[in-house]
Design a protein that fits this description.
Elements: H1 12-29, H2 35-44, H3 62-76, H4 82-92, H5 94-118, H6 124-139, H7 141-146, H8 153-168, H9 172-182, H10 187-218, H11 221-227, H12 238-242, H13 260-264, H14 267-296, H15 305-312, H16 321-331, H17 333-353, H18 357-385, H19 388-420, H20 426-435, H21 438-467
Amino acid sequence: MAVPIVVGPHGNLRRLLLISTCLYMTFYTGAFYGYGPFQLMLEETGAFSHRCITSDEQLPCPSQTAMLLNVQFISMLTMIFTPLMGAGIDKYGPALMFDVAFVIGGLGLVLLILSTSLHIDPLLFPSFICLGFMSCLSGLYTVQTGLLFEEGRNRNRVISILNALLDSGAVTYLLLWYVETNTIMTLPTISAVYLTFYIFVVGTSLICWKKIGRNTQELSTEEMDAAVHERTPEIEQQESIDNEEPISTNKYILIANRPQRQQLLSNQYITLCIFFAFHQARNTFTLTTTRDFLKYLGDDEYGNKYLSIFTLLTPVSVLGLPFVDVILHKFGYAAGLHACNVLGICQGIVQISSTNLSVQILGFVFYSFYRCFLFSVTFSALAAFLRGDVLGKGCGIFILSGGLVGLAFNIPLANVAMNSLGGNFFIPNLVYLLGCLPCIFLCYQVGRGFAKEETKKEEIQLDSDRKQ
């Protein structure tokens, strides 16, 4: 059984863990989602070039490109297992599951070095499957790391920063591609250096998690009661949580004090999950189709200049963090969700209202801030009402739901744009723009849910004060 995450008593370990987590979120966890530049490096090394029919066929040939795309597509299927990864964190604790992430990620990089050095192209598939597994599992640690900090503004800041850095990490492979293009370093050499840095950065986090786990186990019972679940003072209800007893409908019970299954079936969680699933599908669609969207507007004539601007603006999402911090602190989570929705609407309006590529840059800026709010606010909100031993599963289901909605809608919408509309993405972008409107109601419902939670906490505090 996992030892509960404890807030506070870890001193400098927390700071060292936060620094190392910021680094691996940027350079490894988030890097996995920026596959395009890495594909260029693999093309330059001749990966799967044997798939080309004739020796004089121009490289990369369609068959070669298809195999390289399949490498990423198959590795993305690891997202299906995020609920199981989250359940593993809940059951065995973040320290043990981080061992798994460290080993599998390292194995992926070793296989990458072997594949590119010895030109064993099929090894790219298990390599990126391992890297995808590591990325999905370590991505859940944005919230797990945040739980080590006091509930409220500090915790929200940590979760927001880590999510923003994960999002910005998509430019990592672009930096590696730039190094390969402008230096004498080859892809195998770059991969070896990349592995060395991985061992140092992720290994540091691994050591921190192990020490934090030992510190937690050494706490006395009294210290544990004071430190664990500080946001759920109804300790007397813990037996009903463990025994999965039904919840009385006559009295509102804080979500964190309910049985695990009922926390994940609460209106608050389901509503937030629907909001995230829609916007994550929209986010994925934008990322995937921007190349073709801009091509239709004439970006090829400018040498993909605007696609480069779009990519380079990805890290700008970090600049949205102060706004996230102020909105969450002063106005609450519902306001943060409204802000995310408004930014999505603004970006959608720019997409469908103008064919001027220069105007689209404004949409890129909206999009960067939109992504910052989406991940920062939703995952911070989760940590505000779910109990620590449910958060892993909650985050895993979040990520899976976004992937499933994306599969259901994005492939048909992209096919309509490319095959029926001649590459015009006006209709698909309009569909996602209109889809933001019902999300206004979802934000309102989440706000009502948090109002109930706050009211109940105040009642509990008043009762506690009277008893004293």
